[in-house]
Amino acid sequence: MILVLAGTTEARMLCRRIADLELTASLAGVTEAPMTLGVPTRIGGFGGGDGFLEFCKNNGVGVVVDATHPFAARITERTYRLCTQARIPYLRLERPAWTVKPTWHSVRDAASAAAAVPQGARVFLATGRQTLQEFDALGKAEVFVRVVEDTGAEFPFERGRFVFGLPSKSVEAEKALLSMLGVGYLVTKNSGGSDAKLRAAEELGLSIIVIERPEMEVGPVVATVEEAEVWVRARCR
Predict the structure, then answer these.
(1) Distance CA 58, CA 79 (A)
(2) pTM of the predicted structure, to 2 decimals
(3) What are the distances in angstroms from CA 145 to CA 15, 62, 156, 206?
(4) Which of 172, 115, 116, 165 is nearest to 144 (CA)?
(5) pLDDT tens digits, residue range 136-195?
(6) Are the CB atoms for 27 and 8 separated by under 8 Å?
(7) Cβ of 11: how many Cβ atoms within 10 Å?
(8) CA 235, CA 218: separation in Å to the nearest integer?
């Protein structure tokens, strides 16, 4: 059986392309309405490393494709280590990062990004819900945080609010949102994929702060769904 660790657009695309094979996708369950993958899907964690290995053993997992988010370093490194230990072929599917432009401010982590925002500024935070506690240094800034859905969680900053919904692939839609909020700064992770929000911010003359990806020593790694499909099918003949 093929196990696909999902949660990205690329994971969904891969699942659809190899749906004719024996396949199970896994989602972490961080959203109440997860994406539909079109294949058998399990939701929730494995219960640690031992739980992951037990799942693989009990379900005859012979191939693992890790198509989680580019910033899911802990999951990716642990999965690679466990697959190596269990001698299960492992592949990392990771979309290319954006090429950082000279006009962008590139930083290594969330704390550095927060420190680069002046006190009292209005900032659009497009980094997801899971790492908000790392942006404490935003202090008195007015912060607008984009999250997929309303979970009822308390807003973690003194000023600002959540902005609910998925990022748009339309530059004009992103421009309209950023203009409505009146922000002067965009903070985002270098997750790759659609760059509509970055192009919108550039056209509006906003200051752009990009958090670079964590370094991970895993392999092999491919950048496209097509490459991942070829790799999987070569091991499932």
Answers:
(1) 17
(2) 0.88
(3) 30, 40, 10, 16
(4) 165
(5) 888 889 999 999 888 888 999 999 999 999 899 999 999 999 999 999 999 999 999 999
(6) no
(7) 25
(8) 19
Residue range 209-234, pLDDT digits in tens: 999 999 898 989 999 999 999 999 99
> DSSP assignment, residue 82?
H
Question: Residue holding tokens 């990004």?
Answer: 113
Q: What is the largest CA-CA distance in the chain?
A: 59
Q: How far is CA 44 from CA 4, 25, 79, 80, 201, in A?
A: 13, 11, 15, 19, 35
Does residue 48 surpass a pLDDT of 60? yes
From the number of C-beta atoms within 10 Å of its C-beta (0-12, 13-18, 19+), residue 22 rates as middle
Q: Which amino acid is at 68?
A: T
